[in-house]
Amino acid sequence: MTLLSQPPADRHSLWEDALGLVVGTCMMALAVMFLTSSALITGQIAGLSLIVSYAAGWSFGAVFFVLNLPFYILAVRQMGWRFTLRTFAAVGLLSLQTEFLPTVLRLEPIHPLVSAVLFGLLAGLGLIVLFRHGATLGRVGIVALWLQDTRGIPAGNVQLGFDLCVFVLALAIFDWLTVAVSLTGAVILNLMVTINHRRDRYVARS
Questions:
Q1: pLDDT-derived band of residue 121, with 50, 70 and 90 as boundaries?
Q2: Which of 56, 172, 193 is nearest to 129 (CA)?
Q3: CA atoms of 74 and 155, how far apart (whole Å)
Q4: Which residues pair with 205 in a beta bridge?
Q5: Single pTM value for the model
Q6: Euclidean distance between CA atoms 82 and 75, whole angstroms
């Protein structure tokens, strides 16, 4: 006996997708707060944005938004307008939320390793939600999803490979212990995506 009276729909509704974008980006914004509270970094475009914001004193949200702009061309060509517009909306939402959330929520000092682990868990869940609702947070996520859908390469593995490059770059600015602790969060994030975002386990589409 099943709990469902009828088979679930294989597509998300517009309302479900909109809610998914809000929930996914909220989780990512909170994850970024754990990073910045301990002056840690991460990989992907968010990691590059944090490095630039730390080094130049610029807003993370603004840097993150601008660095993503050139990669929408790839998204349109390879993933289509629907995916691109949802990704653009997700990036915009995250940029706004990372500016707003610190004004209403402050974190007490947290051990850096705990911050890294919480970041990895929250960011991993946030990305999975976004992926399952036809969006990502730009740049590497676009390439990762495209390679998974066309070549069968797990998205988490693609992201982790790029992350390692970002962390090597970070060694020029941060001490090795900060980079090592930050890498822990990135590994957790990408393992969650690799294990949980698989087309053979989740079939709903947007």
A1: very high
A2: 193
A3: 16
A4: 11
A5: 0.76
A6: 10
